[in-house]
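Entry details:
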Amino acid sequence: MHDGGGTTVEMVIVMPLVLTVVLLLAQAALYLHAAHVAQATAAHALSAARVQGGTATAGQAEAERVLDQLGRGPLRSTHVMVKRDAERAEVRVSGNASSVLPFLHLPVRAHSAGPIEKFAPLHLAEGP
């Protein structure tokens, strides 16, 4: 039984599609991993900045420590901005996800904010 080269033609059409799907899945996984790294960095930096006695500098240092610990591979060209005032702390992390597809630069952003923790002494109700 001779197919006249039909199988070869099918493979020429199907294989590039299969490889494209595999590359897109790999790119999606890298993007999601980079987004997770950015969100984890923002959350940890916020925790360090909003505690009583915390500072924006402490939040920035914690962000750098987390990025070093998690690995900077999936999240490139990172920029961390930590702000703290008397009432709120805010952290923004931005960067680009690593790319397996040429010329594709997917931006990644994460934001965390919350009130400054303040010590409030516990007042026990006095009995009758």
In short: The chain has a mean pLDDT of 89. Residues 6-50 form the longest helix (45 residues). Residues 6-115 form a domain with the Pantoate--beta-alanine Ligase; Chain: A,domain 2 fold (CATH 3.30.1300). Residues 85 and 116 are 8 Å apart (CA to CA).
